[in-house]
Amino acid sequence: MITILSDHTRQEVGERLDKKLREQKIATEFISLTDMNVGPCYSCGGCTDKTYGQCIHRDDGDIILPKLMRTDVLVMVTPVKWGSYSFKTKRVFDKCAVIGDRHYYYKNRELVKGKIGRVHTFVAIGVKDQWQNDEKSAFENLVAENIKIMNIKGRVHLVDDSNISVFLDSAAEDLNQ
User: Fold this and answer.
1) Can you spell out the DSSP letters for 7-69?
2) Which of 83, 162, 163, 177 lies at a 20 to 30 A Cα distance from 59?
3) Closest listed residue to residue 127, CA positions, set 119, 136, 118
4) Mind listing the pLDDT tens digit for each residue in 67-126?
5) Which domains does the chain have, with CATH numbers?
6) pLDDT per residue over 101-115, tens digit each?
7) What's CA 3's distance to the chain center, in Å?
């Protein structure tokens, strides 16, 4: 199962990717963040003792997180702001810690956490009108660090207005393997 988590503040890249994958008979779940209300992670620790495995702050994360637990491949489609995920995407991503391993350990001279549910691959798709080299580098480094911390396979794709159609074809092929 592939779950596409998409912030639609710009393009409908996530919806178009979902449609392409469904045309190829690939099982997908599409989650739009457009009308979702996910609050921040307060790092309060409540999910590790008071309500083990659940955030004590009730919001739409209660809808999203169980779906992410059941997926094999998590695809996040996000507009990129200052080399990072969008506000809405970042909030969901931060709350994913509640369903991951709550303990860090040392691997290859890095602190890493266990993976999220059964997710074995994380794909971040950054969407922007026009990319600047420093912003490309910042986003690629951020995603690489997230993949390392989650201790799973992953990759990053940079999409702009000039390559959306080409990207959709190659991404659908890539995710189909």
Assistant:
1) --SS--HHHHHHHHHHHTT--EEEEE-TT---PPP----GGGTTTTTS-SS-STHHHHHHHHH
2) 83
3) 136
4) 888 889 999 999 998 999 999 999 998 887 766 655 666 677 776 666 556 778 899 999
5) 2-175 (3.40.50.360)
6) 556 666 777 766 665
7) 9
